[in-house]
Design goal:
alpha/beta, 37% helix, Rossmann fold, 6-stranded parallel sheet, 5-stranded parallel sheet, 2 domains, binds 2-keto-D-gluconic acid, 312 residues
Length: 312
Amino acid sequence: MKPEIVITARGHAGTLATLQADFTAHLLYEAADRDAFLRERAPRVRAVAAFGPTPVDGKLMDALPKLEIISNFGVGVDSIDLAAAKQRGILVTNTPEVLDECVADTAIALVLNTLKKLPQSEAHLRSGYWATRGPYPLTATLGGKTMGILGLGRIGEAIAKRALACGMRIRYHNRNRKSSPFPYDPDPVTLAKNSDVLMVVTPGGAETNRLVGAKVLDALGPEGYLVNIARGSVVDEPVLLRYLQEKRIAGAGLDVFADEPNVPAEFFALDNAVLFPHVGSATVETRKAMGDLQIENLRRHFAGQPVLTRVV
Ligand code: 8YV
């Protein structure tokens, strides 16, 4: 008998196919009546395979009394109520490390695109303006600028490596100071004050909700750039929009938004922002590695072996 699992959202296609082959999978996202769907299957479901921002909360856990493990596709587990899982003795796993270099590539691409305005200059060419209006205006260089990393974990370290190769200086702030060669700032405002580019790489969730608001953006100032590859919730989005419109910061590079996939249309009109549709880890290779790890955690759990990447 294959173990029965619930899949929360339509995630990575290859991973979904393997999950459906290896387990008896119930697709919650296809249920017309979610409560009835859960009631019918609840007594047999032992695992949840979680994808994307779809919440896995205490209510869902209570609806599945035999639930033993929640295996997340992604390193960020802000959509899962970890305290509720812990309280109920439910294991939670994620997919760290396999995506670090890929997300760091996207992050440094976002820095390059934001400072050098490469998408805007390409649009200038495609519009025919190069010939009619002349060259695209001069932009900004990375070398010699300071990147302040808010959240220096494994992904932050991989971004630092790339930024150093571009001639940038690095400083950071974490809740707890690390043993790191990079200078430490005691709070996000001081980090922003000391940085030309503020790189947001913190986890999402309640503890970092709107950590980057008016005070941090004021400290970053009209010459400073914000880059966010973490979670939209970490930044006060309406305040950021206003600061970009009023040129109170120089620009922003955003891979994440508060209510994905809905991005406020006012962002589209900005010339000083580069916007990516949450593609940090979105390559064929990385998504396969993430799915393999998500599935391996489930396999190990059901084989009575320790999971590889436990969160709680
Ligand atoms: C994915 C991510 O976009 O790992 C994370 O935390 O945000 C990304 O890698 C996401 O998990 C896909 O569902």
